[in-house]
Amino acid sequence: MNNKPLFLNRSALEWFSSLPVLCLLLLTLIIGTGEMFHGQLLRMGERMFGDPANNIQYFMLRADPTKPDCDPNMDIDAAVAAQTAAPAVVSDDPLDALFASEPQDPAAVRDSMEKAKALCIEKNTMYEAISKSITPKVEAFRAIETGFFGIFKFGTENRPLLLLVMFAIAAVTTTLCTHHIGLRPPRYKKDFPIYGVSMVVANALGLFSSYYYYNNVLLSSGIPIEKPLLNYIMIALFAVLTVISVVRLLRPPVDAEEGGSWGLGLLSIPLYAFMAITSSISFIGEGHFAGLAIYLGQLLEYSGIFLNLALYIWAGMLLKQTRVVHLFMDVVRPFNFSPETLTWVILLAAAIPTAYTGASGIFVIAAGAIVYKEVLQSGARRQYALAAAAMSGSLGVVLRPCLLIVLIAALNKQVTTNELYGWGVSVFLLTSTIFLLISLYLREGKSQPTDMGVALRGAARALVPVSPYIVIVVAVVQAYQYFLDTKLDEFTAPVMLPIIMLFIVIFDKLRREPKSVAVINNPEAERRVGLEGAVRFATNETIAHIGALIMLMALSVSVGGVIERSGLMESVPENFGNIWLALTIMMGLLVFIGMVMDPFGAVILVSATIAPVAYSNGIDPVHFWMIVLTAFELGYLSPPVALNQLLVRLVVGEKVMDEADAEVANKSFYYRYERWILPVVVLAIGLLTVVYGGQLLVQHGAEWRASLDALLGG
Question: Which residues neighbour 302 within 8 Å (Cβ) at sequence distance 6 or greater?
Answer without folding.
Answer: 600
